[in-house]
What we know:
With 303 residues, the chain is α/β, with parallel strands linked by helices. The protein is 34% helix and 22% strand. The protein has helices at 40-50, 65-76, 124-128, 142-157, 177-181, 191-198, 203-211, 250-263, 268-281, 295-302, and strands at 3-6, 10-17, 30-38, 55-58, 80-82, 94-99, 105-110, 132-136, 161-165, 186-187, 216-220, 226-230, 233-237.
Amino acid sequence: MDLLVVGDANPDLVLRGDVRPRFGQAEQLLTGADLVLGGSAAITAAGCARLGLETALLTVIGDDAFGGMTRQRLEERGVRIVLPRTATGIPTGLSVILSLQDDDRAILTLPGTIAALRPEDVTDAHLAAVRHVHVASLYLQPRLAAGLADVFARARALGVSTSLDTNWDPTGRWESITEILANTGYFLPNVNELRAVTGEHDLDRAAAHLVRTGTTVVMKNGAAGARAWWPGGDCVAPGHDVNVVDTTGAGDSFNAGFLAGRLAGLPMTGAVGWATAAGSLSTRASGGTGAQATLDDLRVTVG
Length: 303
């Protein structure tokens, strides 16, 4: 396999229209509602598979209806599912996404099986069978987070490259991140996450702080595109104008574009260009996987 993605897989219920809650038993009308494949890891894995990578997803899914739907959607997208166990009696996680027209959104998440993954579930046999391992939604998985530094150290010892997209930490503590980043090849935050991890508002200083640990920082910057910093270099890649329907999962498709570029041997500038194109194109449909890019899409968009 080219790639092992580790992390969350669950349905997303994406709601559009009059989604700002008003209590007092007020009834509000929506313009759209879609139940789609969700979870940062699952969306990234689906995006990588669509870009031609042989992709496996290590995750925990329940034996309920939402778990069955999640399995089916992943299999339809060509992702090999690796289940260390089925979480009998624990509900499959679920996110409800309230999507606003100005590209902002609120996310309500039931952790369920999302929090069940453990560092020992990522075995040396799993790592030795792939070229790269990517971890997503770290802080929805506290047990995995506590041992991820060791997982990445084992990966590096086996010659396997690593990447991490923490997503937001709901607790605001960002625990274990220093130890984890010391063994992370590529760190893929958005602007707010980069600032939160480092405590620095200035992005160049924030990135420089992390690059000194040896990691490469590839920062998502929404419609503005992306910036990347690595030991001895940096680059900027613009965003792309598309008809935006829903930004859910755009950062995960960005990850997929970047990983596909690097695993194809592209230089950093080329891989970041693929990342911004993949992230932009994914916003053309509701949910994270409805409009994910193909390799031909990236080549046409990037030029």
